[in-house]
Amino acid sequence: MKLQTKKIIFSLLLTLIIGFGAVAPVFAQTALTEQTVVEARTSLNGLYEDINPSVVYIAVAVPADKSSTYHQRMEKIPWDNFEELFTFFKQFNVPEEQDQDQQKPETESTPNMTYGSGTGFIWDSEGHIVTNNHVIENATEITITYYDGLQRKATIVGADPDSDLAVLSVENYKKDLKPLTIGDSNQVKVGDFVAAIGNPFGNTGTITSGIVSALGRSFALGRDMNTGGSYTIPDMIQTDAAINPGNSGGVLINLNGDVIGVVNSFASSTHSSAGIGYAIPSNLAKRVIPKLISDGKYQHPWIGISGIALTPEINELLEADHDQRGALVQAVQPSSPAEKAGLQGGKEITDLLGSKISVDGDIITRIGDRDVKGMDDIIAYLASNTSVGDKITLQLIRDGKVMKQELTLTARPSYEERTAAANSETQTQQQIGEAWIGAYVKDISAKDVKSLKLPEGTVGALISQVTKDSPADDAKLQENDIIQKFNDVELKDVSSLKTELGKFTPGERVTLTIFRDGKTIEVRLTLGTQNQMIFLCLQILKRTGSLTPSKF
């Protein structure tokens, strides 16, 4: 019996030993895998040594912006403080008339320069360098410094302000450096480990690490002159890897060493890292950069609408389902693909939580194969999946009915075209000036009601002074007149007068309803320009050294 027991115990021990021996390699393999992952997360040295040689330091020289247009000066005039207004006009030091022969000729001088720096990386075997547009914008001199200290001059091959990407060509570039591998930003997930390599504060070859904090962020660019909406860079990658000034144009890489984003900016009130940095997705760069190299520019596909995301509050106004999702079209750009396809913007304006919105435009619920929750989804789809000339299908809700609309994408107006349009509008505004009545007004106080014996509850804008030779003077407006209506709009105070006046341009005829000596009269006048006011003030200043105040 004892012998039998010993045999059984021996058999069990042998089985256990064999079993442990069989699973030991599994445990070892599991431990090895975990160790590899931990090492990759705790030491990025291998990635750094492989990637950093292909990252460069960029130094730029840009002419200092010394110009200050008259219109820009006008925006800073403290109209309500006439002592400061007097000081403002004195700086012009209006000269006495003199012969042109006596005027001193202007002499050319070397413009002052400002200097900045950023980061770039090697894109291809031709040595092209990719960076942010804002790093090299308006630069007259660009110098590239490689990781080993070797310096080269560079020129701009192409730039795209709307994606904030640019490409540089380097003379006598280093041919022994390899281009970086551009990854697929669509595969990036929130929580992925990432690292950024760049030159923050001029500290070359700096690596920082973190995770992907969020995806699908959008950055607003310049406003559209017609729709009032903003163009955006879509699908930005948000990271908590430290991003500081000088990192711009650098790389955001994953643990495989693939570039998944071009570092673009950081968000901080102290202008230093606050745990929120952003990168342009690599898939957008893969579409833009080749075109910048071949054509010097990139055409962004465009529908030509501005819109807002549906919310429960908007759905309530629309009498739609509480959870309806989509982009409510606010405006359609003239001559755009949207207009040609018959998309409809809103015409009925309503107030919602202090904002003015149009509530009767089309609702876009789907673009191509993607559901639409808001305008960001539309912009991201266009940027990542389409090109100029492509046909796309939109799913719409119009007047409660679901429909589909096909349209052909065209090129978005370029940054230069939009800038030219904005400058043209500014120049026109400078020439025309803002609409002006020519009367100094104030809100009606209890003291005014008593001293002028006004009925209780009298509202409007009380004229305290009329400027000589102004539209108000020509229309025979008087001190203590109360402007109660601007055309058919009732006025409660000075603010409401200013709002209505801002809707008109100089030269337009308007009707003012005036309360004077207990009677209501109507007065027609032709609006003047604030440039006319400036001229009058300058003439008064030149003659007397003092100014007669006027507000409207």
How would you describe the shape?
Answer: elongated
**Which range does the strand content fall in?**
25-35%
- Please state the average pLDDT score: 79
Give a short account of the largest sheet: 6 strands, antiparallel, barrel
Helix content: 25-40%
Number of helical runs? 14
Structural class: alpha+beta
Computed CA radius of gyration, to the nearest angstrom = 33 Å
Low-confidence stretches: 5-34, 66-109, 223-228, 425-432, 538-551
**End-to-end span in angstroms?**
118 Å
Q: Strand order of the main beta sheet, please?
A: 1-2-3-6-5-4
Number of strand elements: 30
How does this structure look, described?
By secondary structure, the protein is α+β, with helices and mostly antiparallel strands. Helices cover 28% and strands 32% of the residues. β7 (193-198) and β8 (206-223) form a beta hairpin. It is elongated. The N and C termini lie far apart (118 Å).
Keyphrases for this structure?
single chain, 552 residues, alpha+beta, 6-stranded antiparallel beta barrel, 6-stranded antiparallel β-barrel, 30 strands, elongated, disordered C terminus
